[in-house]
């Protein structure tokens, strides 16, 4: 007999889920836990569509647990708080990103790096402490421990939900690797959901920004709309040659397999190439360019809760929002098809609050 997700917990919930590797989403009745003493329950208003949702829906990373209710860029309004909740009250605007839990005891958790906990609880496609599946933000309500909830600033539009993944994924490495100093020259590889956020944050930090892309058609957009200072076509060997040894750091947001030797050549001595995209095959790492300039290749994944709040507050202060296309819930499968073809500037956001209708 099929498991009844509708009766697993006391609170009735409704969302859209994929049941198999075909990845198509359709309406899904399930349930959420009762709001515990440290929990915040909130009505979901907006949820971003992240490229990783696409991977998980189709089990492209080999770890999907069906049914999958995706969504980890979630913004909503608090409807109930537990008796020991200290930071939130009913009516507050809140956000939840990729994490809804961690061990809270390890070395990483103790220094606000819950994102690098070895036992994280992801917002969806993970397991709660009681062994039940976690379900994400393509749904009407969420229940989450207050530690993993951020305050959503009043002056920040709620549809800027992609800040909670695309935003923190680019903000965190710029800060940690010291690529946030005014006057530095930063390269951003790829101009999609992550890339356009990297450009906006890097410019807000006062750096000079060069966008590196295979698509010449994105030049006008990068410079005129997003404020990049220059644009490099990575397939143009002459342009790339002219830019050798000019960059202090590079944020590489591309998830497709691509060569990194040309990027390493663009770095000055002591330059840093930080990977935030996740190609499915290993990258080829030539060592000589690293030796010849004491260069660094690194990786970075989202951010801890303290830094995520800091990022959202910084975005509100500097009026940094993702470029989004807001779509109704029943458009989600078309949106995912378009995302696969990179047919969006630069992030789809589901208008959950107004369009998630129970059939």
TrEMBL record:
<keyword id="KW-0862">Zinc</keyword>
<dbReference type="Pfam" id="PF00107">
    <property type="entry name" value="ADH_zinc_N"/>
</dbReference>
<dbReference type="GO" id="GO:0009809">
    <property type="term" value="P:lignin biosynthetic process"/>
</dbReference>
<dbReference type="GO" id="GO:0045551">
    <property type="term" value="F:cinnamyl-alcohol dehydrogenase activity"/>
</dbReference>
<dbReference type="InterPro" id="IPR047109">
    <property type="entry name" value="CAD-like"/>
</dbReference>
<protein>
    <submittedName>
        <fullName>Mannitol dehydrogenase</fullName>
    </submittedName>
</protein>
<keyword id="KW-0479">Metal-binding</keyword>
<dbReference type="InterPro" id="IPR011032">
    <property type="entry name" value="GroES-like_sf"/>
</dbReference>
<comment type="similarity">
    <text>Belongs to the zinc-containing alcohol dehydrogenase family.</text>
</comment>
<dbReference type="Pfam" id="PF08240">
    <property type="entry name" value="ADH_N"/>
</dbReference>
<dbReference type="InterPro" id="IPR020843">
    <property type="entry name" value="ER"/>
</dbReference>
<keyword id="KW-0560">Oxidoreductase</keyword>
<keyword id="KW-0521">NADP</keyword>
<feature type="domain" description="Enoyl reductase (ER)">
    <location>
        <begin position="23"/>
        <end position="350"/>
    </location>
</feature>
<dbReference type="GO" id="GO:0008270">
    <property type="term" value="F:zinc ion binding"/>
</dbReference>
<dbReference type="InterPro" id="IPR036291">
    <property type="entry name" value="NAD(P)-bd_dom_sf"/>
</dbReference>
<dbReference type="InterPro" id="IPR013154">
    <property type="entry name" value="ADH-like_N"/>
</dbReference>
<dbReference type="InterPro" id="IPR002328">
    <property type="entry name" value="ADH_Zn_CS"/>
</dbReference>
<dbReference type="InterPro" id="IPR013149">
    <property type="entry name" value="ADH-like_C"/>
</dbReference>
